[in-house]
Design a protein that fits this description.
The chain is of the alpha+beta class and 148 residues long. The protein has one domain (2-108). Helices cover 28% and strands 23% of the residues. It contains five helices and seven strands; from the N terminus they run E-E-E-H-H-E-E-E-H-E-H-H. Strands 1, 2, 3, 4, 5, 6 and 7 form a seven-stranded mixed beta sheet that branches. The longest helix is centred in the middle third of the chain and has 11 residues, at 73-83. It is globular.
Length: 148
């Protein structure tokens, strides 16, 4: 696996990053390289050239390689709400070591995406359908939709 011509390796040790109020204020939504967490990594690790923080994995670029970390659930949650427009909460967040089943060496990610069968539509009577706040009002107001 490579990013921009550099080899990607799995992290060997977890790290903790400290996201400051300044990081939160200057962070950009929907930008893995410009979010508050990515900014935090750059001042936490002086050798880091850049960082890309995604909800599942975080990639930190060094001169010779990229190091891949598992994004913690707390950080993943903050990214999700931040991308929706809510403020990023300052604090300490962990970046873990990818599990053996998700390591680059196992090739698990490629296997899962390549051989995963397509899901069939589930019956709406058997499964709860999540609705985002305000979505029902939008459906009722949308043009072309008849009220029954």
């Amino acid at each position: 696996m490579e990013i921009a011509g550099k080899k990607v390796v799995d992290a060997r040790k977890p790290i903790v990053i400290e996201v400051t109020r300044e990081d939160c204020r200057k962070g950009k939504t929907r930008d893995p390289a410009g979010c508050a967490a990515a900014r935090s990594i750059l001042h936490t690790d002086e050798k880091a050239l850049s960082a890309r923080v995604h909800r599942g994995m975080t990639y930190v670029e060094y001169e010779e390689k990229w190091v891949r970390y598992r994004t913690s659930s707390a950080l993943s949650f903050e990214l999700a709400v931040f991308d929706r427009g809510t403020a990023f909460e300052p604090g300490a967040y962990g970046l873990g070591v990818p599990s053996a089943s998700h390591s680059i060496a196992s090739g698990q990610q490629e296997k899962q995406t390549a051989s995963r069968p397509q899901r069939q539509e589930a019956s709406s009577s058997r499964h709860h359908q999540h609705q985002t706040k305000g979505s029902q009002q939008m459906k009722e107001r949308s043009p072309g939709r008849r009220k029954e």
